[in-house]
Amino acid sequence: MNLPNAIERPRDVLRRQHNALFTEDSYVYWLRHYVTALNTMPSSLPSEQKPENFLLETTMGYLHAESLSVQSPLESILGGNFQANGGQAKTQAAARALLFPKSA
């Protein structure tokens, strides 16, 4: 993927829509982050799984960064699963289990 073109085209669209500069910067940041992640993923991975893997890796980083002394927004959403695991997911499967608990 050509990163400069992938950045400039959305910038142009956002400017035509008269979005705030902060919004444009935020979109570009996440786009850059996603393209970088795509370049590190194996080419054998199906395209449908790439966004999911990106979001899980990003979420796992967020879960690892959470402080146990501060009540996080995820704690109130995930309830007991988050507290029982100490708020950390060490694998993608563990992150999936925390984010998408099976319905009883």
Give an overview of the whole structure.
The protein is mainly α and about 100 residues long. The protein folds into two domains: about 40 residues; about 60 residues, no CATH class. It contains six helices and no strands. Helix 1 runs antiparallel to helix 2.
List keywords for this structure.
104 residues, 0% strand, 6 helices, mainly alpha, 2 domains, single chain, elongated
What is the topological layout?
Elements: H1 3-16, H2 21-40, H3 49-65, H4 73-78, H5 80-84, H6 92-99
Helix pairs in contact: 1-2
Largest sheet: none
Number of helices: 6
Gross morphology is elongated
- Mean pLDDT, rounded to whole units? 74
Class from helix and strand fractions: mainly alpha
The helix/strand order is HHHHHH
Give the domain tally.
Answer: 2
Give the radius of gyration. Answer: 17 Å
Can you tell me the residue ranges where pLDDT is under 50 for at least 5 consecutive residues?
A: 67-71
